[in-house]
Automatic annotation (TrEMBL):
GO molecular-function terms, A-Z: antioxidant activity; oxidoreductase activity
Gene source species: Clostridium folliculivorans
InterPro entries per the UniProt record, alphabetical: AhpC/TSA, Thioredoxin-like_sf, Thioredoxin_CS, Thioredoxin_domain, Thioredoxin_ResA/DsbE_sf
Protein name: Thiol:disulfide interchange protein tlpA
Domain Thioredoxin: start-end pairs: 67-205
Domain of life: Bacteria
Amino acid sequence: MKKLFFILAVLVLFSLSFYTVMRYNKNKSIKTNGSDDANNTKVTVTDQLNQSTAANSSISKNEIFKNTTNSKAINFKLKTLDGKEISLSDFKGKKIFLNFWATWCPPCRQEMPELEKLYQETKDSDIVILTINLGEDAKTVESFMDKNKYNFNVALDLDQDVAIKYSIVSIPTSIFIDSEGNLVSKKIGPMTLEEMKDFVTSPKK
């Protein structure tokens, strides 16, 4: 009888311990991934970008993913460095070169001079160069831009909502949108000026 009682007691304690651990893990998961905890979500996305960006050196420079489904670009609203709110729809009828980046990202910094050259060559054309900085404040980004004398347009995706909408898993990532608002192609990793020109003069415009 004592042996049976002991076995039952052990089973009860085990069940309670298992329940406690499962409940803790569930709450922890909700805290990390819940939509009402922007800070934790932001940290998670940034960590993923850090890990993925570190692997960019293994990605072929010519690896461009073509969109064959004619899906439309997702509209968004963000603020620029001067506090002005812009939306993707502001550039309706124009070709758009989106570039997702951050100042801490070495491959991003590598292609910034090329991106500036592209901006200078296309600023009076129907091609819009719009870069989207992920998770950094205006002061940090503005200091970086001033130090390097860059002039291309920057929008601040502080909570990385736009990055999530566009399934950005590594930076730099560039996306080309045609004049009809269709997603044409996507490139992960840094590009040279010539590669950027080829990217924005895709046969499908």
